[in-house]
Structure formats: C-alpha cells, structure tokens
Backbone:
C-alpha cells in the first residue's frame, strides 16, 4: 500500500460523516459528479412508490390535503433553510433555477425602485453559469434596465446610485471559486442595491449564512449537493423583512392570498408562498423531500470541514501522482476561496475525461478545457479521492 | 333494474373505449374529478421505479443521454401533439401552465409589435381560471400594455388596431362552456393580433385543431385529461411559422442553440426547444411520458363522441332522478358549446359535494355554488354516470 492510500484509509476511519455514505446507492465507480447530479439516497425509491401508488393512485385528489401536497413548497423550503443559514418561513420550493432567477431579479429591481426610481442597472457575474446572464438580461430588458456584466472582483467598483440589483453566483460552476458573499453583499447594500445570490454550487456543500449576512434574495437548485433527483425543483429565498415588498413577475394562482377563492383580483399571499407560481410538480418535489432526510443530524459545518479535507487531499494526490505541468488547477488554493470541487485544466481534457469515465472515475468536462471533479462530502470518501487521482495519472500517461 | 341502469349497461357494452378503463387504477369510487387530477395509469408505478432506481440510481449523469432525459421535453411534446391537432416539432413540455402562459403572452405581444409597434392591449377572458388573468396582467405590465378583461363573447367587439394578444380558455373551468376556437382565432387574426389558447380543460377530452385553425400559441396542463400525475409539467405550442419570432421572456440555458457551449451571448435554439427554460424535472416528466401510452390507438374523435354521450346521459339521469328545480346546470346544452364536464348549481353545494364524496361519488366544489363533475372518457363508464346521478338525488333529499 502506498503512503497516500494508507493516509486515505486513516482519514476514512476518522471521518465522522463516513457512516452517511451507506444511505446512498453507490457502486464501484468513484462518483465525482455529484455537483451535476447527486447520487440516489437508498430510501427514495420506496417513498416515490408510495407517492405514486397510494397518494396519487388510491387517494387521488384527496392527497392535496391528506398527503400534504398543497403545503409541500413551503414545508420543503423549511427543510432546506437550515442548510443555507435561513430561519423558517423564507424559502419556497418550485420551478427551475432559471425561473427563480427571473422572479428574484425582477423583484429586486422593483424593490430598489420603491426607494429610488432612478435605479436602472442590473449587475451580473459575467463569468458565471450562462443562464444567470441570459435571464438577468431578460429581467433587465423587461424592467427597462441596463445589464452590466462584470467579474465578481469588479463588482464593488461598478456599484453606484444607478445600481438596482446584483446577481452573483456563490461558487463558480467551472473554476470552483467561492466568492465572498458577506463582503460583496455588504458592498451592494452600501450602494443601496439588492443582492441576489445563486447558491447552486454551494448549498449543501458549505455554510451560506443567508440570514447572518443579510442576503436579500437567493435561488438554488436541489439536484447537486442536495441529491433531489434529476431536475428536482429549485428554491427561492426572500428575506423576511422584504417579503411584503416582493412583487413577483409570475403571480400565478398558487401565490394568491386565497388561492381557492378564484378571485379575479390578485392579492399576493403573505410570506414565502408569495414566491409560488403554478401547481407544484408533486412527484419531483416529494422525491426531493425524501432525499433531504439524509441531512438529519448532519451539521453543515462538518460537511464543509470534510469538503475542504477532500479537496486538499485530492490536490495532494494529484501533485504526487501526476507529472508536474501536465494539469493545472484553476480552483483557488485558499480555503476561503474554494467551493467543493477541483477544476483541472489540461490540453486534451475532453478525451481525458472520457478515459477517466471508462476507468470508473466519473467527473465531467466543461468547455473549453476543464476537468471538473465535485466532492460530495456525504458520500465521497478519501479512498475514492486517492483512487481518482491515481487513475487520472494513469490515463494522462497512456 | 331501473330503465336508466339498463340503458347504462347497454351503453357500456357498446362502448368502444370501454376496454381502456382496465389500464387505470380505479376502485369502487365513481371518480368524476379527472378534470382536476387524472387517475393513475396502472403501468406508471413500474416505469417510475425504473426511472428512479436504474436511470437515476445506477446510470446517474449518463442518463441525460442514455435514458433520453435531455430530449424529453420535445419528445413528449410530440406525443401530445396529435391529441391537440398539431404536427410534430411545435410543442415542448416543461414548467407550469402559469409559467407557459407568461412565455406565450409576452412572446405574442412581441410578435405583434414586430409588425406594428403601436399595439398595446392584451385582451383576456375575465371569466376564466384566475391564474390566466393574473399572469396576463403581469405580462401586460412588463411589456407596457393595458389589460382588457372581457368575456369571450365580448372579444370580437373589443379587438382593434391596438390589440396585441388575446388569451382565452378553450373550456371554462367552472361552467364547462366550450368556446369557439376557430371563429375567435379568425377574428383575432383579422384584427392583426395573436391568439393564445389555454387548453387545460380541453386537451385529451375533445379535438382542438391547433394547426387546422391557425392558433398562434397555446398552453395546457397535463394532469387532467392527460393523466400525467399531480403537478406534471405543462406544455407550450408555438406555431411553426412563428417559431423564429418567438422571443422568450425566460431565455434559460435549455433554450440556447448550443446549451453546452456555455456561451455568454444568448442565441435561441430553433424549433420548439426555444420554449424551454431551465433543467427539466425528469421524474414528473417521464411519469407523464409513461402515462401518455394509454392513448396508443385511441382516436380523439372517439373520445369526444363518448364524452358527449356521457354528459348527455348524466343530464338525462339527473333530470330523471333529481326533483325539478333542486339543481340547475350551468353547462351549455348544445354539444358545440360543451366541454367534458357538467357543472350543477345548487344552494348548498359545498355540503352536497361533501355528502357525495362520503357516498363514493367524487366530483369537486367550485365557489361560490357549483358542483363540478368531470367525465374522462378513457375510464368513466355509463354505469358510473347513472350511479353518480342516483346518489346525487339521494343526498339532495336527505
């Protein structure tokens, strides 16, 4: 046994989250793509079967009340809340991340203009996952704003009296860089603007602190580190003090104060329900609810500690196994700037990822030249990390 | 055996769709609420189990290609297309009905303005399911239009050079009135405006003829007569000739011409995919796909014929069993004005519906005073209809 595989064994033995792994369906593959689609929690299929056979098949329409379908968006929002540092009553689950980005950015612009009608700029992270930019551009267009795409580092410099809203990603999907949410949020507030954070690549991997840092609005998906299943519904956070000012561009009947009143006049619901739109997709939503049970008794701080240990150890193994200069990490070394992934740049990365997958190490390829490895602390162990780096070295030297 | 129960038996014997019923999970309840939530097709639970255990659990991320997840929105759209009279390539599945109404109305206004920038009115059915009005109002507000809520009968009279888009329901959710899609669409086109139809209460119950009548845009849910499951994803139809002009207010990454190019500039996809937004909710979507298999070999014309026979027979039984004047049908008698439901008004309808449900006849109550009975021709038989009317008469005379 090599020195590093011995170290991996010791780290796995000491890992307080090691026992959570047994709650997931895994095989002999090293699955480092949980930042794209989280693995299946083992109890979910049985729960889905009950939802389909009993709740839909036998109870049918009665399940809207009796099986808690109607209240699922807020109930599951409250289950996600502690993972992102939010008190209950501020998160609602439903729709896709893109749709929630739209709600959040339009609502943020409207909030800013309640105080100052001259605010007409939407600042967006130009380096981020493209949908945020596309949707922010649409939100800007529909509200008569100008879009200012900049890097997160440039944000403080462009904020001013014209800034209405700023949409940022907490962790960059490609590089894995963790942006400084507390200081950026403070800078945005100092400029009198509203901060919208996209938590897709941070929720479930590290503490977010939405309430603590006064984030105004936030969105995120649930199929990465939250393991909700393919395309499981996203969520929207609206800070409690702003809920009465949340003026949704998608005021569907589910967001009405009296949804079954069938009133022709729209009166928005109080609280998190104001972020709802249409009928929630119950099968996907309740599968997510079941999946979230793996978090029972798992502190997000322990997840963060293990995540950093995993990515540190991966970098250590890569440095030991891979010839120097063959790959270059584009993920920051500093812990305070790192999410839960390592992105390695190499010339032939598309081919390299194919070979890796063929050898049982699953990450993904992100254009133009990035090998992306996501480390889900709930089910990835240190032996996985050592094996991934070892196989990477082997496929890099064919 | 009474005369009407004998007639019911004869009608069931002669029913060419009678054999479809065996494909659904039903019990001894008379389920007349399929216009709210369709019953469970019996093969769906097994398919969902495969989607969860094998596609998600075992194949994980590979399923986006190998299990056809990525192409599901257009593939399932093409499965719905013949049911609403659309050729392939014009329907995409995803998001809720409300979200699709928003896409369609904003896009319709933008299309109208490509030809005439002075068009600034959105006409909407004031009597319809409220979400359409709320969302149309938001679309009007965001595009600088005025909302004109009118009854469908008033529509021709308010159309003019300022009309940009008209949003109408094909069948009224409360009364079951079927509106004249061909002539209303023609009137809207004559005024130079764009027609958006909401098919929630007609798709799967009667022929719609989207292509034949030149409808511009249409939306619908899939959990009523299409039996897709609770909150299953909705769909959006964009007429082929308009697809290049479809300018979505929700241009998420899934609607990009090159979704994995991760480009910062937005270039809309050609065809139906332009109506996509974010990551599709795969569990709900593939459950719907499985549910649609019950339509194999079922012509929508046969469904319509049986639907009218069912509602006719229900009215006949109600007239025979219920004391005159105790209930009043608000559903039109004329076939060309009737959807697939009968709405009966009576003074104490909330209580009456509770008693009916307690006696195994499930319809629903719609405020303020309507007993709503939906007849899904795929699984409701004539004996069900006779029993429902008989039990209704019994609970009305306590």
Residues:
């Amino acid at each position: 046994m090599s020195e590093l595989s011995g170290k991996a064994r010791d780290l796995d033995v000491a890992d307080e989250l090691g026992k959570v792994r047994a709650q997931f369906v895994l095989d002999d593959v090293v699955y480092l793509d949980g930042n794209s689609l989280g693995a299946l929690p083992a109890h979910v299929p049985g729960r889905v079967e009950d939802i389909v056979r009993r709740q839909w098949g036998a109870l049918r329409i009665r399940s809207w009340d009796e099986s808690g379908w109607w209240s699922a968006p807020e109930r599951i929002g409250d289950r996600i809340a502690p993972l992102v540092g939010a008190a209950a009553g501020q998160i609602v689950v439903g729709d896709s991340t893109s749709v929630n980005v739209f709600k959040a950015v339009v609502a943020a612009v409207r909030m800013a203009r309640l105080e100052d009608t001259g605010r007409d700029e939407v600042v967006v992270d130009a380096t981020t996952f493209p949908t945020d930019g596309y949707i922010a551009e649409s939100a800007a267009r529909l509200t008569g704003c100008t879009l200012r795409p900049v890097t997160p580092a440039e944000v403080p410099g462009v904020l001013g009296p014209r800034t209405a809203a700023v949409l940022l990603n907490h962790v960059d999907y490609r590089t894995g860089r963790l942006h400084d949410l507390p200081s950026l949020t403070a800078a945005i507030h100092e400029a009198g603007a509203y901060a919208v954070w996209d938590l897709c690549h941070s929720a479930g991997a590290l503490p977010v602190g939405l309430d603590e840092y006064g984030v105004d609005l936030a969105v995120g998906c649930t199929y990465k580190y939250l393991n909700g299943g393919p395309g499981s519904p996203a969520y929207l956070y609206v800070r409690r003090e702003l809920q009465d000012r949340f003026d949704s561009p998608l005021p569907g009947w589910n967001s009405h104060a009296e949804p079954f009143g069938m009133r022709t006049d729209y009166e928005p619901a109080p609280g998190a329900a104001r972020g709802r739109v249409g009928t929630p997709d119950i099968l996907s939503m309740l599968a997510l609810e079941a999946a979230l049970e793996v978090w029972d008794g798992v502190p997000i701080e322990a997840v963060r500690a293990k995540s950093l240990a995993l990515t540190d150890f991966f970098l250590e193994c890569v440095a030991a196994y891979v010839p120097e200069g063959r790959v270059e990490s584009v993920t920051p070394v500093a812990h305070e700037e790192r999410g839960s992934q390592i992105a390695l740049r190499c010339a032939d990365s598309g081919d390299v990822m194919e070979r890796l997958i063929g050898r049982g190490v699953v990450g993904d390829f992100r254009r133009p030249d990035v090998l992306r490895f996501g480390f889900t602390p709930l089910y990835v162990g240190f032996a996985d990390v050592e094996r991934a780096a070892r196989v990477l070295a082997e496929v890099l030297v064919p």
User: Anything to note?
Assistant: Chain A has a mean pLDDT of 96. The longest strand of chain A covers residues 163-169. Residues 300-321 of chain A form the longest helix (22 residues).
